[in-house]
């Protein structure tokens, strides 16, 4: 079918318009696509930044969580330590209370011990006066020292009591030991050098240096009794044993049988 020139012109015009419209639409689509891509890039960049912030916050959170756990462990340890310290403190307070009570009791005991020691010294003095008179100076000095000690304030009560008990122990030991010492004694009307021999408290004898006079202490009469010369050998042997010049051996010596 043949178109008129006017129709052809209309068709051409329509086609041109469509081409322009299509081109405009394509341009618009391209522009819109560029905007979408740009927005997508912005979103990606924002998301990346957000992820970095999230990662940073997560790291910070993990660090804080670790610090929190560490602090919690320290708190648990401190609580255990505090409980232990409180238990020790309670025990120390209880000990302090006991010490305070003991100090009160010590003060009471101390007030009672001093009179007791005085009575013990008086009793010991009476015992020595009634005992066999060996080592008179030594024993008298010991008693005098105890009496003087009781008047001193620079010696603790415990030390005083120890020394009193020590004096008692010395007197006890005299009853189970053998001993010899030299001294002066009036014999046959004149003062002579003699050797004293003590065997426990059952025999207390003397012998002059020349061996001519022997004697036994008689506790009942409180005096020396002459001994016959037959005891000289045994007494000399006993003197040597007491001086540790002979080994211990069986000896025959006179005994004081007084009660």
Automatic annotation (TrEMBL):
SUPFAM superfamilies, A to Z: Methyl-accepting chemotaxis protein (MCP) signaling domain
Domain of life of the source: Bacteria
Keywords: Signal
Signal sequence bounds: 1-26
Name assigned to this protein: DUF3450 domain-containing protein
Annotated organism of origin: Thalassomonas actiniarum
Taxonomic path: Bacteria, Pseudomonadati, Pseudomonadota, Gammaproteobacteria, Alteromonadales
């Amino acid at each position: 079918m043949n178109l008129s020139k006017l129709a052809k012109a209309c068709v051409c015009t329509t086609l041109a318009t469509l081409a322009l419209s299509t081109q405009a639409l394509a341009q618009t689509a391209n522009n819109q696509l560029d905007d979408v891509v740009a927005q997508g890039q912005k979103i990606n960049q924002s998301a990346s930044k957000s992820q970095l912030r999230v990662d940073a916050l997560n790291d910070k959170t993990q660090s804080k969580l670790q610090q929190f756990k560490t602090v919690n462990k320290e708190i648990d340890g401190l609580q255990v330590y505090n409980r232990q310290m409180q238990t020790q403190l309670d025990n120390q307070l209880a000990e302090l209370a006991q010490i305070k009570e003991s100090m009160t009791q010590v003060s009471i005991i101390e007030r009672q011990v001093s009179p007791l020691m005085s009575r013990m010294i008086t009793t010991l003095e009476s015992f020595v006066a009634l005992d066999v008179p060996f080592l008179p100076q030594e024993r008298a000095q010991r008693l005098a020292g105890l009496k003087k000690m009781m008047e001193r304030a620079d010696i603790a009560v415990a030390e005083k009591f120890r020394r009193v008990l020590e004096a008692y122990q010395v007197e006890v030991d005299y009853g189970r030991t053998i001993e010899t010492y030299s001294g002066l004694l009036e014999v046959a009307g004149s003062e002579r050098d003699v050797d004293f021999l003590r065997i426990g408290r059952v025999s207390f004898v003397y012998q002059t240096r020349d061996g001519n006079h022997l004697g036994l202490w008689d506790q009942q009469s409180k005096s020396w009794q002459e001994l016959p010369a037959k005891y000289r050998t045994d007494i000399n042997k006993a003197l040597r044993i007491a001086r540790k010049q002979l080994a211990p051996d069986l000896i025959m010596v006179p005994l004081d049988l007084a009660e």
